[in-house]
Write a structure and sequence with these properties.
- It is a single chain.
- The chain has about 270 residues and is α+β, with helices and mostly antiparallel strands.
- Among the domains are: about 100 residues; about 60 residues, Nucleotide Exchange Factor Grpe, Chain A, domain 2.
- Helices cover about 55% and strands about 15% of the residues.
- It contains three helices and six strands, in the order ααββββββα.
- α1 packs antiparallel against α2.
- The termini are far apart.
């Protein structure tokens, strides 16, 4: 018996824990079972490899299609870019057409005037007023050409307040009038703007108050009423004293003459 009082268990008795049944007589052994397992595992591996190969083949085909699509997109983008550049060049040429036309007119006008002034049979010298009008017309033609491009010319009148956002000071002019201090005293060139944005400021001369010609302020304190009254009183007292002294001197002189007359009478 065992320590727990239970009868011993043996393999022959058939009692106790179940034992693995052995292979029946005549059945293949474990060697045959291992070969069959290997064969099944090899079949599964081949199937897995075939699936992976098929997946990779499909992925490669998909990548090829994506590359073709990307190449097509790049070709479309390049074509659109070329068309855009061609349109922009056409728009630029159309935009510059008025400028070219204005320059053609200026060229012809300048050549005509040059030929006229260089003519050998010119009887009279060029008129300065005519030359001034010609130059003004040239400036107006240039301003018109710029206006067709959206660039407007703006002028500045003398006496206008100086504006740093629209004016460019080129000189300072001394002025005596404080009202003209900080104002435009002369215009050197006009300004240009586009859609409210100043492209080029107008060149102007700005007035500045000349402090050298200002009258110096008197640093003497004004005389107060009390001081004025006191000074007036002192002057009056001095005047009265002088008058008294003059009267006394006159009396003394008269007394002296009287005494001299009496003395002369006594002597006679």
């Amino acid at each position: 018996m065992s320590r727990d009082g239970e009868p011993p268990v043996s393999a022959e008795s058939g009692t106790g824990p179940e034992a693995e049944p052995g292979p029946p007589p005549g059945a293949p052994g474990r060697a045959n079972g291992g070969a069959a397992g290997k064969a099944a595992g090899g079949a599964d591996g081949d199937a897995l490899r075939a699936d992976i190969r098929d997946a990779l083949t499909g992925l490669a085909a998909r990548l090829d299609r994506e590359h073709e699509r990307a190449a097509h997109r790049e070709a479309v983008i390049d074509r659109l870019h070329e068309e855009n550049q061609r349109l922009r060049r056409g728009e630029l040429q159309a935009m510059l057409e008025p400028v070219r036309a204005a320059l053609y007119r200026l060229h012809d006008q300048a050549r005509r005037e040059s030929g006229r002034l260089a003519a050998a049979d010119l009887a009279e010298p060029p008129d300065p007023r005519g030359t001034a009008l010609l130059l003004e017309a040239v400036a107006d033609d240039v301003a018109d050409a710029l206006a067709r491009l959206g660039v407007e010319r703006f002028t500045v009148e003398p006496g206008a307040p100086y504006d740093a956002s629209r004016h460019r000071p080129v000189a300072v002019t001394p002025v005596d009038d404080p009202i003209r201090d900080g104002t435009v005293t002369g215009v050197e060139s006009d300004g240009f703007e586009q859609s409210g944005k100043v492209l080029r400021k107008a060149a102007v001369r700005v007035g500045k108050l000349d402090t050298k010609h200002e009258k110096p302020e008197s640093h003497d304190k004004p005389e107060t009423k009390a001081e004025a009254g006191s000074n007036g009183t002192e002057r009056a007292v001095k005047a009265g004293s002088n008058r008294r002294n003059g009267a006394g001197n006159a009396g003394n002189s008269g007394n002296g003459e009287t005494m001299r007359a009496d003395t002369q009478k006594t002597d006679g």
